[in-house]
C-alpha cells in the first residue's frame, strides 16, 4: 500500500485524540469516575449549542469555554446530589447528564433551521472529513487540517496538565483524606480534571463524536490495567493502545467501508476482551465472580 | 475526670460534630500534653475517628474549634501527620510500597516539584523503621493487611511531623507487629513527638499509653493513664446509662425540633 496522506492525517488525528482521552481516562478509572467522564461528555451538549449561538462558529475558544463551563457545572451538580442530597452516586450521574443532554437536544432541534449543527454531528462525529476540513487564514494561506491542529493543542494541554500535576493527581486519587490533610485542594484537583475532560470532549466531538470519546477514555486504561500495576507503565500502555486502536481502526473501517470512529472503538474493545482472555490471572477471578452471581 | 494542662500541643474547645441530623460529638473540651503516647478509647460509634477527623479538618464542626501548637491547623500542616484507616483507600491502586511512602514527602516539595534522591532515601529509612524495607518494590495490592498498615505508618514517618494522629493503626496487625509499632511510637514520644492513636482494646491500652482519652459521644475522661483507667470511668465509657445521648439523638430525629439548624 502506498503512502496515503489522508490516511496519515486521519490516523494521526485519531491517535492524538485517543492519547488525550486515555491519559485522562487513566485517572478517571482509578478514581472510579469513568461514568462521570461519560456524563460530562454528554452534558456538554447544551454548552456547545449556547457557545455556537453566541459565537456563530463550530470551532474556536467560545466552544471550549462554553462546554468547559457546562462540564464543571455538571460535576458540581453530580457532587451536590450525591454528597448533600445523599442520592446514590450512579443515580446522581444519571439524572444530571440526561437532563443536560436533553436540554441540548431540544436546543439543537429547536434551532435546527437557523444553525449549522445537528445531533449526528455532535453524537457521532466524522473523522473521515478531517483531511478536507482545512484551516485557512485570513490572508488565504492554507494551514492544513483544522481538527488535527485542535487535537494537537488538546494533546499538548492534557499532557502538560498531567505532567505538572502528576504528584497531586496521584495522591488525591489514592488517598483523598491524606491529600486534604497535607493542605492539597482535592476539590481543585477534581475540578481541574473534570475541566480537562470537558475540554477534551469538545475538542474531539467533531472527529469521533461525544459517545465514542467515552470509549477512548475508558477502554484503553481498563485494558492496560489488566496488564500492569505500575502507574507510569499503565499510562505508557494506555498511550500505546490508543495509537494502535487508531491505526487498526482506520484500516478496519477502510476495508469494511464503515465509520472510522466506530471501528477505532471496536478495536479498543477487541483488545480489552483479548486481554481478559490472555490474562490468566483474570480467568479464575472472573469464574469466581460468575459463580457468585449464579448463587445470588 | 478531665485534666486540662498549660501549653498544650492540641487544644479542642467546645467541639460539636454531627452527621446530618445525628450528633456524633458533644461539647468536647480537652488539652493534650506534648511528648506523650495518647490513646483514644471508646465503644463503636463513640466518635473516636470523628474526633481526629474534626481536628484534621476532614469533617466540619457544628461549633467549637481546635488548635494545634496554639495555632490554626492551616499554619502548622507541615508539623502534623494523619494516618487514615487502612480500609479508607483502594489498595488496588497501581503503586509500590515505596511510592506510597514517598507521598509523605510531597507537602515539603510543593507544586510542580518531583521527589528526588533525597526523598527516596528518606522513604527507604522510614520503611526500614517499620521493618518493611524488603517490600519497598512490592505492589501494594500484594501486601497483607498488616503490611499495608505499616506502609501507612512509614508514610506518616516520612512527613517528619511533630504530632501524629493515627486512626486504628493496629487494626489487622499481628501481635508481634503491634508490639514493634508501640515501641516505635514510644521512641518517637521520647524525642518529644506526640502520637495520638485510636485504639480498641482496653486491656492493652493501660500498657501502651501514658495518656488516655475516653469518649462516648461526649468526653468521659482525658488524663494520665494511671489516673483515668478506673473501673468507674470505663463503665461510664462503655456501659449502661450512657445511651442517654443516643436517646436525645432519637428524640431530635422524631420531633421537628432541630438545634443544629437555625
UniProtKB/TrEMBL annotation, chain A:
Pfam families given in the database record: ABC-3 (PF00950)
What is its subcellular localisation? Cell membrane
Q: Membrane-spanning residues where?
A: 6-30, 37-55, 61-81, 93-112, 147-166, 178-201, 207-227, 234-254, 260-279
Q: How does it sit in the membrane?
A: Multi-pass membrane protein
Q: Which UniProt keywords apply?
A: Cell membrane, Membrane, Transmembrane, Transmembrane helix, Transport
Q: Does the keyword tRNA processing apply?
A: no
Q: What does the similarity note say? A: Belongs to the ABC-3 integral membrane protein family.
Q: What is this protein called?
A: Metal ABC transporter permease
UniProtKB/TrEMBL annotation, chain B:
List the keywords (alphabetical). Answer: ATP-binding, Nucleotide-binding, Transport
Decide whether keyword Transport is in the record: yes
- Which stretches make up the ABC transporter domain? 10-242
Under Gene Ontology molecular function, one entry of this record is: ATP binding
Source taxon at top rank: Bacteria
Concerning its family, UniProt says: Belongs to the ABC transporter superfamily.
UniProt xrefs under PANTHER family = IRON TRANSPORT SYSTEM ATP-BINDING PROTEIN HI_0361-RELATED, METAL TRANSPORT SYSTEM ATP-BINDING PROTEIN TM_0124-RELATED
**Protein name per UniProt:** Metal ABC transporter ATP-binding protein
Q: Tell me what organism the protein belongs to.
A: Echinicola arenosa
Amino acid at each position: 500500500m502506498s503512502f496515503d496522506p489522508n490516511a496519515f492525517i486521519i490516523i494521526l488525528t485519531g491517535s492524538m485524540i485517543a492519547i488525550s482521552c486515555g491519559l485522562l481516562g487513566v485517572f478517571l478509572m482509578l478514581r472510579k469516575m469513568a461514568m462521570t467522564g461519560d456524563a460530562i461528555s454528554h452534558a456538554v451538549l447544551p454548552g456547545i449549542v449556547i457557545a455556537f449561538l453566541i459565537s456563530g462558529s463550530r470551532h474556536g475558544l467560545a466552544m471550549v469555554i462554553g462546554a468547559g463551563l457546562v462540564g464543571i457545572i455538571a460535576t458540581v451538580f453530580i457532587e451536590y446530589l450525591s454528597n448533600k442530597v445523599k442520592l446514590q452516586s450512579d443515580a446522581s450521574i444519571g439524572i444530571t447528564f440526561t437532563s443536560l443532554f436533553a436540554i441540548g437536544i431540544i436546543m439543537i432541534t429547536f434551532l435546527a433551521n437557523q444553525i449549522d449543527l445537528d445531533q449526528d454531528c455532535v453524537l457521532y462525529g466524522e473523522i473521515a472529513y478531517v483531511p478536507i476540513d482545512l484551516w485557512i487564514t485570513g490572508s488565504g494561506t492554507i494551514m492544513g487540517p483544522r481538527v488535527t491542529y485542535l487535537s494537537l493543542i488538546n494533546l499538548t494541554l492534557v499532557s502538560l496538565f498531567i505532567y505538572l500535576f502528576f504528584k497531586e493527581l496521584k495522591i488525591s486519587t489514592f488517598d483523598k483524606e491524606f491529600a486534604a490533610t497535607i493542605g492539597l485542594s482535592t476539590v481543585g484537583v477534581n475540578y481541574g480534571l473534570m475541566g480537562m475532560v470537558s475540554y477534551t470532549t469538545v475538542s474531539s466531538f467533531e472527529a469521533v463524536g461525544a459517545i465514542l470519546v467515552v470509549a477512548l477514555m475508558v477502554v484503553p486504561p481498563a485494558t492496560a490495567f489488566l496488564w500492569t500495576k505500575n502507574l507510569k507503565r499503565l499510562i505508557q500502555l494506555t498511550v500505546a493502545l490508543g495509537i494502535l486502536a487508531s491505526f487498526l481502526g482506520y484500516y478496519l473501517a477502510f476495508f469494511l467501508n464503515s465509520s472510522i470512529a466506530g471501528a477505532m472503538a471496536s478495536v479498543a474493545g477487541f483488545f480489552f476482551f483479548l486481554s481478559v482472555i490472555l490474562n490468566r490471572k483474570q480467568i479464575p477471578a472472573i469464574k469466581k465472580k460468575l459463580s457468585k452471581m449464579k448463587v445470588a | 475526670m478531665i485534666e486540662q494542662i498549660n501549653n498544650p500541643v492540641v487544644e479542642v474547645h467546645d467541639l460539636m460534630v454531627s452527621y446530618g441530623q445525628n450528633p456524633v460529638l458533644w461539647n468536647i473540651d480537652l488539652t493534650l500534653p506534648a511528648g506523650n503516647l495518647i490513646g483514644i478509647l471508646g465503644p463503636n460509634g463513640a466518635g473516636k475517628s470523628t474526633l481526629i477527623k474534626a481536628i484534621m479538618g476532614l469533617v466540619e464542626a457544628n461549633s467549637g474549634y481546635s488548635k494545634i501548637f496554639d495555632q490554626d491547623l492551616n499554619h502548622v500542616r507541615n508539623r502534623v501527620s494523619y494516618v487514615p484507616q487502612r480500609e479508607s483507600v483502594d489498595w488496588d491502586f497501581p503503586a509500590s510500597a515505596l511510592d506510597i511512602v514517598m507521598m509523605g514527602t510531597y507537602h515539603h516539595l510543593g507544586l510542580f516539584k518531583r521527589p528526588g534522591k533525597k526523598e527516596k532515601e528518606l522513604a527507604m529509612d522510614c520503611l526500614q523503621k517499620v521493618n518493611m524495607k524488603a517490600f519497598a518494590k512490592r505492589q501494594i495490592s500484594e501486601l497483607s493487611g498488616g503490611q499495608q498498615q505499616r506502609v501507612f505508618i512509614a508514610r506518616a514517618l516520612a512527613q517528619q511531623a511533630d504530632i501524629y494522629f493515627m486512626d486504628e493503626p493496629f487494626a489487622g496487625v499481628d501481635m508481634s507487629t503491634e508490639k514493634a509499632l508501640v515501641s516505635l511510637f514510644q521512641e518517637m514520644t521520647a524525642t518529644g513527638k506526640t502520637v495520638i492513636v485510636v485504639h480498641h482494646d482496653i486491656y492493652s491500652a493501660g500498657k501502651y499509653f501514658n495518656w488516655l482519652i475516653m469518649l462516648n459521644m461526649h468526653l468521659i475522661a482525658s488524663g494520665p493513664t494511671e489516673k483515668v483507667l478506673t473501673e468507674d470511668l470505663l463503665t461510664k465509657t462503655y456501659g449502661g446509662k450512657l445511651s442517654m445521648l443516643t436517646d436525645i439523638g432519637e428524640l431530635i430525629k422524631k420531633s421537628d425540633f432541630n438545634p443544629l439548624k437555625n
